[in-house]
Design goal:
about 65% helix; rod-shaped; 2 domains; Helix Hairpins; mainly alpha; two-stranded antiparallel sheet
């Protein structure tokens, strides 16, 4: 997750930092849980093999005990041996079930933590967009107030944004009182985009062809 800009108000920056710290903790826990999953999977496999082995031993002991009982006609023969084998099988089964439960709990914890991490990502992105919009509104308002003050009567001598832009044209002269004066071009005072790409004659002609009211914005001096 990319860190958010610090050029915001202290309270907003503190809130973002708090959310970011919480996200980092949750993300760390998520990675830790993911690292545990192979271990729980391995425990399930190991206990399952032990359960199968214990059941195989129990079946073998049971077969031996039952055959001996038939031969000796003693129904109590080998009861302790068979009981011990059955107990081992039960214990192995309990361990296997515990391993399955632990693996399922780990899987559920991973899913829950992932949902939390994704929710935090959305919250951070939403908060970032909100703060960016607030900052833009603040900057726009600041710029508007600054321009109004700079262009206000009595203060426009500081650095007004509304100025006559003059370009001295070298090699072009006009006669004034029997003297030659250099011509001064002031077109860029109003035509601010005259030297910007996209405002060439060909572009104006293309745009002009898409509107039925071109005369209202290019006047009678339309480009040909």
């Amino acid at each position: 997750m990319a860190r958010l800009s610090s050029s915001r108000s202290p309270s907003s920056r503190k809130e973002i930092q708090s959310k970011q710290a919480f996200f980092d903790r949750e993300d760390k826990e998520y990675e830790k849980l993911k690292a545990e999953k192979p271990k729980t999977n391995g425990e399930v496999f190991a206990t399952e093999q032990l359960k199968k082995a214990a059941k195989a031993v129990e079946d073998s002991v049971r077969y031996q005990v039952e055959n001996t009982r038939l031969e000796t006609k003693d129904p109590a023969w080998g009861a302790d041996k068979l009981g011990a084998a059955e107990e081992k099988t039960k214990l192995a089964m309990l361990r296997f079930q515990a391993a399955i439960a632990a693996d399922k709990a780990c899987e559920d914890a991973i899913a829950a933590k992932l949902a939390s991490v994704n929710d935090l990502k959305i919250q951070l992105a939403t908060k970032s967009r909100e703060l960016d919009r607030q900052r833009k509104r603040r900057d726009d308002l600041t710029s508007f107030i600054r321009q109004q003050l700079m262009n206000a009567p009595g203060l426009d001598f500081i650095q007004p944004t509304l100025q006559i832009k003059k370009q001295v044209l070298e090699g072009l002269f006009f006669e004034l009182n029997f003297t030659k004066k250099k011509r001064i071009d002031m077109c860029q005072t109003c035509h601010l985009a005259i030297d910007m790409p996209g405002y060439e004659t060909s572009e104006i002609s293309r745009v002009e062809g898409r509107t039925s009211r071109s005369d209202s914005w290019v006047g009678s001096h339309r480009p040909t």
